[in-house]
Structure formats: structure tokens, C-alpha cells
Amino acid sequence: MPDITPATAFLEAEGLALQVGERWLCREFSLRLGAGECLVLLGPNGAGKTTLLHTFAGLRAPTRGSVRLAGKPYASWRANEVARFRGLLAQQQPDHFSSSALETVLIGRHPHLGRWGWEGAGDEAVAREALRDVGLAGMERRDILSLSGGERQRVAIAALLAQSPRLYLLDEPTNHLDLHYQIAMLELIKGHTRKGCSAVMVLHDINLAARYADHVILLDGRGGVVAGTCAAVLREDCLSQAFGHPLRRHVVDGCAVFVPQ
């Protein structure tokens, strides 16, 4: 694990561009995400948000440019080290086998175990705390196949918390969640950034992005990308052009709110 200083960028992209087949998802852009910061990926359906998140996670190589974690390219990381540094919440949670909620959350501890290691009391304590954090205390023995979609999503978030990464990568963390738990889970992730972690989230709700993002990458689905601070990107003209529908910005109790015209 590299030495982390207050000046260390947890995630950097330089001249990044992505192409799938003949289609460009985004042209060259650069970014730098430091400790305590939250980046939100926005754009219409099919614009490439998940593909970009997976590129940040090291699951695919960029067409052009480079991605670095803590100043190092993915090729310079050992697999177990990078698994401890960054964690990914996938968009879908396929469950092919029955297991308890606690067993599922304990999967997040695997990067911290040796090759032949087993979870110990300390790992179980971390997993139980993560379940409490997502509002599932007392459901440790529940079969995940019996959970609602929202409960299953919170188990997945708990597994990510149990992994204890420095960089959280979350693909639609509000999937299947009602309003109460949407806010609760985003506040939970924001709380971890306040403790010195960083987060990259794919969101569909512009107003949640305005509430929680420090930086935004806006994809328009045609290869265009606008990247910058929340204030610089979340503008009526940029959003209306990207989503293909006019939006108006209002300020409510000091917070920006975007409403379709």
C-alpha cells in the first residue's frame, strides 16, 4: 500500500477517452479526486457512466489516456493491495446461491485475509457494524434470497463498508431504495468522505448530485463530456443539452434544485 499524504490524489485521470466499437462514450478529459471529496457521474441512459466507473475501478483499460490510484497506475498495484484501497458496488447483485446477510457482508473482508485465511471475530465485528450502519441490525441470519430489493441493496452497501476501502466506487447506490434510505445511504457514504475517504458515484437524480457532489462528470451520450466542480457543471445549459430536455435552476433554502421545464 502506498504512503498516503494529505496531498495525495486518490484517483486521477489524464487525457481519458473511452470508445466502444465505433462509438465514443467520452472524449479526452482529466480529473483529480483527493481525500474527502465526492465525484458524481451523471448522464442519460446508455451514456457510458457504468463503463467509465469500471474504468476507474481498473476493470477495463481506457481507449486513450491513463488512470492512477494514489499516483500509481493499476499495473503497479498488487491485486490484494488494490482490493484494499478501492471498493466497487456493482449496479446489480446476482444471487445464485442461498447465504445469510452476515455471510454475504463478510465477503467484503476477503481482501484483508491471507490466501488460506478465514474470517475471525474481528472480521465478524466489522461486518455486524456495517449491517447496523445500513439499518439491518438483527437481520444477520436472514437468507439474502428472502430479502426485498431495497434490503438486498443495503446488504451490498454493507459489504462495501466492511471492505473498508479508501476509495468508494458506487454504481447507482440508490437502486431499489425508498426516499428515506436513499438519503440515509448517501449520508453514510458522505460521512466516510468526511473521515478522509473519497467516493465516486453514478446517480440519476440531478438534485441528489447537487446535494452530495463536490465534482461532477456529465456525459451527454454522444461522446461529449463536461468535468469540473459541482457549480461549474450543474448549470441549466449543460444539463439541458446532455439530457435533451430543458431544465430550470431554482434555489430552495440555499440549495440548488433543478426542475424540468
Question: How does this structure look, described?
Answer:
32% of the residues lie in helices and 28% in strands. The chain has helices at residues 49-56, 79-85, 101-106, 121-133, 149-163, 179-194, 206-212, 230-233, 236-243, and strands spanning 9-20, 23-34, 38-42, 64-69, 72-73, 86-89, 167-171, 198-202, 215-219, 225-229, 247-252, 255-260. It is globular and about 55 Å long. The protein has nine helices and twelve strands. The longest helix is centred in the last third of the chain and has 16 residues, at 179-194. The strands form three sheets. A six-stranded mixed sheet has the order 6-7-8-3-9-10, with helices on both faces. The protein has a four-stranded antiparallel sheet with strand order 2-1-4-5, with helices on one face. α4 (121-133) crosses α5. The mean pLDDT is 94. It has a domain at 9-88 and 167-260: P-loop containing nucleotide triphosphate hydrolases (Rossmann fold, 3-Layer(aba) Sandwich). It is of the alpha/beta class and 261 residues long. The termini are far apart.
Short summary:
The chain contains nine helices and twelve strands. By secondary structure, it is an alpha/beta fold. It has a domain of 174 residues: P-loop containing nucleotide triphosphate hydrolases (Rossmann fold), CATH 3.40.50.
